[in-house]
Every structure is written in C-alpha cells, then in structure tokens.
Amino acid sequence: MAKYTEDAGKLLDLVGGKENISAVTHCMTRMRFVLVDEDKADVKAIEELPSAKGTFTQAGQFQVIIGNDVADFYQEFTKISGIEGVSKEAAKAAAGAHQNPAQRIMGILGEIFAPLIPALICGGLILGFRNIIGEVNFFTDGGVFDLEHGTKSIADMWAFWNAMYNFLWIIGEAVFHMLPVGICWSVTRKMGTTPILGIVLGLTLVSPQLLNGFSVATASPEDIAAHTYDFGFYSFVGTGYQGQVIAALMAAFVLVALEKFFTRITPEVVRMIVVPFMSLVPAVFIAHLVVGPIGWAIGDAIANAVQWGLDSNFRVLFAALFGLLYAPLVMTGLHHMTNAIDSQMVSIYEYTTLWPMIALSNIAQGSAVLAMTVLQKKNDRAQQVNIPACISCYLGVTEPALFGVNLKYKFPLVCGMVGSAIAAMVCTGFGVKALSIGVGGIPGILSIRFDYWLIFAACMLIAIVVPFVLTLIVGGKQLTASERGLAVADGGATVTVEVAADAPASDDALALPASLVAPLSGTVKPIDEMPDPVFSSKCMGDGLCIEPAQDACEVVAPADAEVAVTMPASNHAVGLRLANGMELLIHVGIDTVDMGGDGFACYVAQGDHVKAGQRLLTFDQDKIRAAGHPTVTAFVVSAPGQARDISFAAGMDAVAGETAVVDFKA
To answer: Residues 355, 357, 359, 363: what is their CA dihedral angle, to the nearest 10 degrees?
Structure first.
C-alpha cells in the first residue's frame, strides 16, 4: 500500500464523497477542493488525519494543508477517487461559480483593496503622528508643559517639528486625497486590463486643474466660474474627486468595460493605437459627467448612514451588533466593504468612528487565543499554532487566529465576539474617533485622536480581559485532556507526557550542518510576519520570511541537499531534504501558484543533489507585483528531524548564499 493510500481514502469520505467534489487541485503545500456543499465536510475529523496539518476555506476553495508531500498525496487521492485533477485557473473558476453574487463582489473588493492597505496603514500612522505633534496643545504660551491649559503644540514650539508636521502632509495627502489613483490602478490590475490607463484615469479624477473636492462647499462664485467647462450645449463644473472611493471604483469599472469591449472588436494590427484611445477618453468623460456624481452621492449616502447609526440614540446597540459580528464577517470576506466605508468617512468627516471597533475586534480574538495558550500550555502541537496566531492577531492579522484556533474550537470565537461587542459599546458610547485606518490591533491606538487615547486604552483593556477570562472559564470545561496536552493514566489521574531534555543526540542530529544560509537576498523577518495563515501559524513548521531586495531575482540552496519536490507547472517553490532527513521549503510569494509559471524558472529537478549556494529558482518581482501578489518568500523548516535546538536569525538584511540565518546548536 502506498504511503498515503489510507489517509487519501479517508479524506475522500470526509469531504462528502466523490459526488460532493466539483474540482480538486493542489499547490506546494495544500489540497484545494471546490465542494458542492461545504457543510458535508467533516472538518474536525479531517484535521485529525495524520497527513493533515489543518484546514481553511478561502475564495470558495476548501483547502487541506498537507505539506511538502502534497503532490504524492494528490496522486493517491485522484487514483482512489477516480477524479481527474484540474488546473488552478479551472479550480478558481469553479470556486467562483459556487459563490453567491455578494461573495463574488466582496471577493473582488477584497482583492482591489488588499494592495492599498499598506499605504492606508502608513498614512494612518502618519496622520496620528501629525496629530500628536501639531494638534495637541502640550504647552502654555510661556513654554510650560500643561495639558489642561496648554495653547501651543510641539510644532508651535520648535521649528524642526513645525517643518516635520508640514512636510509629512505630503505623504498624507498622497495617500488619502489621491486615493482614487490607487483605486483605479488596483481595479484595472485585478480585472486584467491595462494598469497605466487606470493610473491616468485616477489622475484625471484628482487633477489640480479641477476644483478640489474638499473645497466645493466653500467655493466662491469666482472659483466655480473658473472651473466651469462650457461646451455650448452643455456645461458643468469640473470637480475633483479627492478621497472619493465609490466614484473611483465606478469610473475604473467603466474603463475596464470599455477596454475589454474595444479589445474584442479591434483588429490586432491596430489594437495598440485604437484600444487605449477609445477606452480612456470616453471613460474620462463618463467618469466626470455620469458615474462620478452618482458615485459621490452613493458614497456619501453610505458613509452618512453608518455615521447616523454611530451617532444615533441606538449607537450603543449598533456598536454591539457590529462588534459581535465583525469576526464572522472576516471569515466570509464581507469585511472588505468596511475599508471603503472607512475611507469615505475620513473623506467626509476627517475621522472615522467605525475603524476603532475593528481594531478592538482583532484584539478580542487575539485575547481568546492568548487564553488558549494558557489552557494548552502542555500541548506542544497546539502551541505551535497558538503563540504565533496570538501575536499576529494583536498586530492586526486575524486569519491565523480565526481559522487556526478560534473557529476550530468554536468557543474561543464566541468569547472573542462577546468581548469585542462590549468593548465596541464602550468605544462608541464615548464617541472615540480615529484619524484613518491604521494597524488593526494593539498598535492601532496610534491612529486614534489623542484626546481619545485614555478611553480607547480602556476599551483595549476590555477587549483583552473579557475574552481571556471567558475563554479560560469555558475552555476549562470544554477542552478534553488530550486537547490540553494531558494524558489520562490508570485510575483517572492526569499526567503530562514530557521528553527528557538530556536525551542523547542521534547520529542524524550530528549530521546537521552548523547553519543554513539565506536562500534569497533581502530583509529577514520572523515567519509569523508572513501574510499567509498557513505559514504564519507555523502549521508547516518554524522558519523565516524574506522580503526580497530590490534587485533580488534568484533563490539558492541554503545547504547541501537533495531536491525533494518541485512545482513544474508554476516553478514558484522548491522542497529540499538534508542528509539527516530534515526537510526545507522555500516558497516565493503568496498565491503565486496562480501565475502558472509566468515570471518563474526552475533549474533543478526532483532527485537532484545541490550544493549550498547553487541556483534553484529565478523570479521576476515586477511580474509578481503586477499579478497582485506579495513577493515575500517563506523559508520553512518543515520537518526538523532530530534537531533539538534551532535558532532563527531575523531583523537583518541577508545576502543569498552567504548570510547564515538558521543555526543548529549541539
């Protein structure tokens, strides 16, 4: 019997049988299913399979994490099931067909806003810093520190900080006022049309030749006349769409529709000339004359409706409902709409009262995981997921905590939701305002207006304490002894199973090299900063992630090794096996399997023996970014073998094939 025959057969039954599978494929680490009815999948039983390291659902695909041997598992599964595998593109198409219209729309919105979030977070932190140095009066006229009676800010007191306050607005304006440029670029990138045309369209929406959108309400008749375009039969005021989200989205989709239409009907010999002109020029006119004003009105209506809910007599109930349901929204992908609402609110009111509740929800879910680390302190396998998931959640990345821990056990999710609801009620009841979107966790306080810091800190304390205590209480009753890492001996007494620390090292451990060198040049970070729950949760193993240097394009072997696995169809990852049996995984980018090998090349084959520093893969960073994927690369020790003391060096810049980043201690 082949190695995975038994588990593959069990998995077929546990996903609901052959008739419940619409499509199946695999990537470097996981099986990807499109199921007819996801409710038929027995998630708990699947995660107990020896071959499975976890499960999660994303973009309509039910994914089972297997590890480096996923290709062998896949072959066994297709042989047993009699199902022919499909391409990654076909699987994605099938997954989309199984989503309802709301899920598809939210999925598209998520992929549009995801590339913009780093800029929005950076801008939010900058606005928070400017608020502290320029808007808070710390000093009296005589220069005495006095928060109660102060009349001068830090920027008022010192020329350096005044210049810093003014200069930083260059970045703030670029992020928030010029946001339509990024939105139009992201829409065209996502929809597969020409991104530079999206950038140009976005620039026309915020052109300085137009009346600034933030100045419309106070514009004089002279300003309006100066910005009026009179075509004889029709005239309109040329108004900019600074900070507008819905209007930019609608304009970009008009451009996408026009470009796809003219690409389809235009002969290829003149397509380069005809398509850009016939797409962009009408799109600009339609944007300013039709969809721009409509989008502005829709955006304002949505933002005003949310703001009304947060300002009304029912605001505490509104906040309780939002705080309670935000975490489940994250799991469905519907939370992406809040990015648009927050941005629109900042554009209208110069603050948002919605985003503080989002930060509190993330903290609450992280606190539930923190309690699980206490409850499962004797369960080493669980701790490999719990600890990094808790840290990433407190830093604003919730997926490892939600999918890896809280949803798995259910009660931590509910306890986190309850804590989030209580914290949101207090937060909204006191009218806490954020200057913009920020880091969605504990560092999020930096984006809160300074005069609300104390009350927001109290809300964070609620979001930490309530879920933590509730999870401890419920978990003490719900978790079994085995889930807590305890073994039941004869007579019912519980004892922990420990491995002697002074056990002698095996010959395999002695065969380890002293260290592993960086497989890629760039900035080395802890693996829990990898923006992918499969890697950041450490269910694949511990390791590092590397943000490639600007000119980095080559992956090399970190040690003498055998090539255990490659991905011939995509060339985006490679698995290695050291002489002692230790397995390593190098995975370039996130979801780069979807690129089908475009921009990648592999120079080794399964079974090859390579030397440290030997070239394994090459990749094109520009193509990866153009496809909408992060370039950050995972470097994982996926099977540590007999190694007992492994240290990972993070927080530095490494040179491929030279800098030691993993050390093995005797």
So the answer is: -170
In 549-612, DSSP assigns E strands to: 554-556, 561-566, 573-577, 583-587, 600-602, 609-610
- Using the structure block, give the residue that is written with the tokens 């997954």: 95
**Per-residue tokens: 46:** 């699947």
Confidence at residue 416, expressed as pLDDT on a 0 to 100 scale: 94
Between CA 437 and CA 120 the distance in angstroms is 6
Q: Which tens digit of pLDDT belongs to each residue from 307-355?
A: 888 888 889 999 999 999 888 877 655 566 677 787 778 878 888 888 8
| Burial bucket for residue 295 (CB in 10 Å: 0-12, 13-18, 19+) | buried
Model pLDDT, residue 583? 87
- Residues 365-386 have a mean pLDDT of 86
Asked whether 27 and 593 are in contact (CB, 8 A), the reply is yes
SS3 559: coil
Spatial contact of 183 and 248, defined as CB atoms under 8 Å apart: yes
- DSSP, res 445: G
Report the pLDDT value the prediction gives residue 280, as an integer from 0 to 100: 96
- Helices 337-349 and 246-265 pack at an angle, to 10 degrees, of 120
**Across 82-92, average pLDDT:** 57
Q: Is 337 exposed, middle or buried (0-12, 13-18, 19+ CB in 10 A)?
A: middle
Q: Is 82 left (phi over 0), alpha (psi -120 to 50) or beta?
A: left
Q: Which of these, 108, 158, 118, 110, lies nearest to 134 by C-alpha position?
A: 158
- In DSSP notation, 134-154 reads HTS--B-TTS-B-TTT--B-H
Q: What are the Cα distances from residue 317, in Å, to 175, 338, 349, 355, 424?
A: 33, 18, 22, 17, 9
Going by C-beta distance under 8 Å and a sequence separation of 6 or more, which residues neighbour residue 331? 402, 403, 407
Q: Can you tell me the distance from the alpha carbon of 5 to that of 258, in angstroms, rounded to the nearest whole number?
A: 51
The strand pair at 522-526 and 660-664 is best described as unpaired
- Active site amino acids: 27
- Tell me the C-alpha distance between 164 and 158, whole Å: 10
Residue for token pair 């989002």:
358
Output the CA–CA distances (angstroms, integers) from residue 442 to 27, 64, 335, in the order listed: 34, 31, 19
Q: What are the helix (H) ranges across 430-556?
A: 453-478, 507-510, 533-536
**Are 330 and 398 in contact, with CB atoms under 8 Å apart?**
yes
Cβ atoms of 534 and 564 closer than 8 Å: no
- pLDDT tens digits for 145-181? 887 778 888 999 999 999 999 999 999 889 888 989 9
Q: Are 438 and 355 in contact (CB under 8 A)?
A: yes
Quick one: which of 534, 591, 583, 590 has its CA closest to 558?
Answer: 583
User: Rounded mean pLDDT of 601-621?
Assistant: 92
Which conformational region is residue 396 in: left (phi greater than 0), alpha (psi within -120 to 50 degrees), or beta? left
Give yes or no for a contact between 546 and 514, defined as CB atoms under 8 angstroms apart: no
> Phi/psi class of residue 333: alpha, beta or left (left: φ > 0; alpha: ψ in -120 to 50)?
left
Q: Is the pLDDT of residue 485 over 50?
A: yes
Q: Among residues 428, 457, 463, 462, which one has the least CA distance to residue 317?
A: 428
In the block, tokens 């806003």 appear at: 113
